[in-house]
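Structure (tokenized):
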């Protein structure tokens, strides 16, 4: 009996320890529907204004927090998107290189696709495909077309093959970006960036709500083969990837670098649990 009591107390102790480990995330998804910002991280002062608000208002408040970013020129003799990506996607092991998003290859920053049409050079992939809401010349369109939160260095030919496909799982393995798969309509990125894709798409949907001169970008479940609509999917797959590939140090560092350049953050990198309040 004494042994049983001891085991019971021991299991209660272990349970309470594991509960307190999870306390932070529990608090943020509790049933009261209030958002709690604990000021536990350097970046939490950015979110302090959200502390105590009703979770139903989170999306609206997040939009107001992130919608005043500096708009970069796409290509310019002054600091432009090329220059920004050399900082945001720098190879942590080689400051002369960037990491290409779909292949994972480390590539010389200087080996850019500037009309040379070299298939192994790198260019600028709009992860939210341009034609899905902000087509045209990015130099003129700007806004979402020059928002570096979703623009990544990519191998020129791989970028071309991804085209404007929506994100979902399955299909044929890509011959060059071997971790990626594709069908006629869909693109599945390599495992290491699946969550990164999801969180970039969540950012775009909340940053662009149609209250400025840009379209209201929205995620959908059909994937939307109609490329003229400002939609991309598949939402349920993105939600799954957000969990399967959690935020890592490269993504956090990238978010901070963008904050320094563009003046706004991707909240879904800093607080992945916010996703639960907005998409169910
Ligand atoms: Ca990742
Ligand atoms: Ca939107």
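Design, position by position:
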């Amino acid at each position: 009996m004494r042994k049983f009591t001891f085991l019971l107390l021991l299991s209660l102790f272990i349970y309470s320890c594991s509960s307190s480990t999870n306390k932070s995330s529990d608090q943020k998804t509790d049933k009261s529907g209030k958002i709690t910002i604990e000021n536990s991280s350097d970046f939490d002062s950015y979110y302090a204004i959200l502390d105590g608000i009703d979770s139903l208002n989170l999306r609206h408040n997040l939009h107001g927090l992130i919608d005043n970013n500096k708009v970069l020129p796409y290509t310019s003799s002054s600091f432009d998107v090329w220059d920004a990506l050399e900082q945001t996607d720098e190879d942590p092991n080689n400051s002369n290189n960037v990491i290409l998003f779909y292949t994972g290859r480390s590539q010389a920053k200087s080996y850019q696709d500037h009309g040379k049409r070299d298939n192994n050079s790198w260019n600028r992939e709009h992860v939210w495909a341009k034609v899905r809401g902000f087509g045209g010349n990015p130099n003129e369109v700007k806004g979402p077309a020059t928002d570096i939160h979703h623009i990544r260095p990519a191998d020129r030919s791989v970028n071309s093959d991804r085209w404007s496909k929506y994100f979902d799982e399955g299909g044929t393995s890509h011959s060059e970006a071997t971790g990626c798969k594709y069908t006629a309509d869909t693109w599945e990125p390599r495992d290491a960036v699946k969550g990164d894709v999801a969180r970039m798409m969540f950012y775009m949907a909340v940053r662009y709500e149609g209250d400025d001169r840009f379209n209201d970008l929205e995620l959908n479940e059909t994937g939307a083969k109609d490329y003229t609509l400002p939609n991309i999917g598949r939402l349920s797959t993105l939600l799954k990837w957000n969990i399967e590939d959690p935020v890592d140090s490269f993504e956090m560092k990238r978010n901070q670098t963008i904050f320094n350049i563009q003046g706004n953050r991707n909240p879904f990198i800093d607080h992945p649990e916010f996703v639960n309040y907005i998409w169910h």
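Reviewer-requested clarification: The first helix runs from residue 2 to 21. The radius of gyration is 21 Å.
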